[in-house]
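Two entries, shown back to back:
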Amino acid sequence: MSDKVSAQCHCGSVVFSAVLTDGYNNVLRCNCSFCRMRGAVVVPAQEVDVIKGKDLLTEYRFNTGEAAHFFCSVCGIYTFHQRRSNPEFYGVNVACIEGVSPFDFPVVSVSDGINHPKDGGKGGVAGYIRYEPK
């Protein structure tokens, strides 16, 4: 089942949509030096459509330069990124999706990006992040 969602950065300068091909079943975090500072849901790259503000997106690449990370140049919010493990998929910042908060997910898998398969590691799941409201 596919679900088209509306999303935007904090200031609304960048507006985009994405099609969740598996709902929120693949929400994940990653423990690499960059991704551990944010969270994403995985979608096919062709299912991300920037509706407004494409010219305001800033691209950042690090380490191997293989994955492209996109941010709003006005407010600095991470919107989505091209995945290094599979460039045909994007990770979309769940916090940008209308009506969704990272705290909506009680358990989130953490990918082992420190031991990325493209660097000779095994990858897989490094652990889980749990959120329990008070």
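entry 2 starts here
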Amino acid sequence: MTVYSGPVFDMAVNQFGVIANHLEIPMDERDRILMPKRAVTVSCPIHRDDGTVAVFEGYRVQHHLTLGPTKGGTRFAPSVDIGEVAALAIWMSWKCALVGLPYGGAKGGVNVDLSTISKRELEGLSRRYMQEMIPFVGPHTDVMAPDMGTNEQVMAWFMDTYSMYQGQTVTEIVTGKPVSSGGTLGRREATGRGVAYLARRVLKELSINPAGATAVIQGFGNVGSYAALELQQYGLKIIAVSDHTGALHDPAGLDIPALMRHAATRGSIAGFSSELAFDPDQLLTLPCDVLVPAAMERVIDAKVAENLKCRVLAEGANGPTTPEADLVLEKRQGEVFLIPDILCNSGGVVVSYFEWVQDLQQLFWEEEEVTRREYAILDRAFDAMLQRAKADKIPHRTAAMAIGVEKVRAAKNVRGLFP
């Protein structure tokens, strides 16, 4: 019996089962490695602009604190539930361990449709959520970050609320803050840059010249837009993008800087061009060199996996590929090179770690230093994944997750069980 349920949590459990079987982890160890240490559900009442009171449900799941504080984003979306949040926290644990960060995974969120609340109500909700979380978070317990539906401004409100409670400014309680409030240069771009950097590395492995290559981006939020911009700067043509409002397709290549300016002003890609409008359902199966799913979980099922026409699948989102689709991709390893999510989008948490370190030290780096260190960590993790995959003759996702799970398991075993 468990409080966690839903397709996303079931997917995380399924993936862990595959890894646990591969690593031959005894059955009596598995629940201790997999099940979250702590889950919190809170009510977040706020004053609406019309004078009424509304209550929203919020969550925070801390997977494990064996290697250090937990770390993870906070999403504001109508899809948020405790099962989804738990799955994302579990994936974050494997991600942090894979890239060598001293963190366990966490995730949080509020079930809210942002289109139904004003900016003032968003501030009230953000502050109330953090106020409810104060007994359970801290710079050495659980450090929050942005996710879907949250941004630098929300992180600033989180930080200010926590600081007011402490009676002093505590910048290190969250990452992804504005640079003017203790954030780090390069954090906003970090996840998308990392996705593009690893995709370019794979193109080199496959002897594909970026200058003649094409890319398709599903999701044009922070991750997708910066991945598109960076890939375009590497010489790729971005032939299609989509978000929740629709899709655009231009075989000659889209103007990504112009599209980013439009999305920043309008809040979406809607209205950018009626001539380039395209069916979003066909986007994932367009012929291209690099496909970046950077939107939601579970968008690539077995049927989509069978019809993928990309050479590189760079998972910018968390959990975009179902276990059934993974079985299809395993058979297509020679055709589709998978960069699994826990590696591909890890640039965000890597630079969040840098922000946390800089805040603790009150010593800040230049952006070139941040980016250089980010790419060095991504290179090391990518090399470890490839080496493991080739040595054990296993898919890339299995190799990446096995490295992460092994590290968490080893840390738990060496520390023992208290009491």
